[in-house]
Write a structure and sequence with these properties.
Elements lengths: L14 H4 L5 E4 L1 E2 L12 E2 L1 H13 L3 E2 L2 H4 L9 E8 L2 H14 L3 E5 L9 H4 L11 H9 L3 E4 L12 H19 L5 E3 L7 H9 L4 E3 L18 E2 L7 H16 L4
Parallel strand pairs: 1-5, 1-10, 2-3, 4-5, 5-6, 6-7, 8-9
Helix pairs in contact: 2-4, 7-8
Length: about 260
């Protein structure tokens, strides 16, 4: 029986799932957690990040860009995609060295109108403030061989705002990032994993090639490129919320006939 954890901390429990499709891992913040953090699981220590990459590399996993995920069937050699949400400065500070050391590239989804500022969408609900990458820091990220994508202009719940505002968030962020950094912005990330068919179609009309969700699982050629599944990477945790999510993920995994 599969006993699949709800979060990715180590490779062994996920090997069979990863073999069934294209895995995409989600990261947010790297390094030490400041005081008064509410969502502790969004932080991953630099040591554990390095350990996860070392484990993936030792097991034969290679970097797989999103453009490859949507165009090629699962390969005989394992591929994996690494994504970061929000554009936190600590992802740059603690992420560049281990990524280079183990030969992986990643994509950072940026909140276009908040570069060099703080995560105000979290601070408003009581989360600890964290600095976001500035324009020069994003350029450092790109110069290191990594990608960027859009996470909207201001990080709203897209299904909770008027359609015209959602269009602006999706379209304007793409244009601003392209104008600022001179690279095509082809990939989108739904803030909070909040999307519906209307929002998805706006993303398609805006000219993106992919969009990632927070839905748990791996991707096949049958997966819509605008509904890509991901698995959140974090440290091991045992509490009742984790247990409930574990049971739900296990139920969904079985329902889809994956075990």
């Amino acid at each position: 029986m599969n006993t699949l954890p709800p979060y990715y901390s180590s490779l062994a429990p996920f090997l069979s799932l990863f073999a069934s499709g294209h895995p995409i891992l989600t990261y947010h913040k790297l390094g030490p957690r400041p005081r008064k953090v509410r969502l502790r699981g969004l932080y991953l220590s630099a040591e554990l990040f390095d350990q996860q990459l070392a484990e993936l590399r030792a097991s034969g996993f290679t970097n797989e860009p999103l453009s490859q995920v949507i165009t090629e069937p699962p390969a005989s050699t394992a591929g994996i995609t690494l994504t970061f949400d929000d554009g936190y400065q600590n992802a740059l500070r603690y992420g560049l060295e281990p990524l280079a050391k183990h030969g992986f590239q990643a994509i950072q989804y940026l909140v276009a109108n908040r570069l060099g500022q703080l995560n105000d969408w979290d601070v408003r609900v009581g989360e600890a403030p964290e600095p976001l990458m500035s324009e020069p820091e994003v350029r450092d990220w790109l110069a290191a061989g990594h990608e960027i994508g859009s996470h909207t202009s201001t990080h709203p719940y897209l299904t909770r705002i008027p359609i015209n505002e959602a269009k602006n968030e999706i379209q304007d962020s793409k244009k601003r990032l392209e104008d600022t950094f001179g690279v095509p912005i082809q990939h989108f990330c739904y803030p909070y994993g909040d999307w519906n068919p209307i929002v998805r179609d706006i993303v398609i009309e805006a000219g993106y090639l992919t969009a990632v969700t927070t839905d748990f699982g791996v991707n096949t050629l049958e997966t819509s490129p605008f509904e890509l599944k991901r698995i959140t990477a974090r440290y091991p945790s045992k509490n009742w919320r984790t247990a409930l999510r574990f049971l739900q993920n296990l139920f969904d995994h079985r329902k889809n006939g994956a075990d």
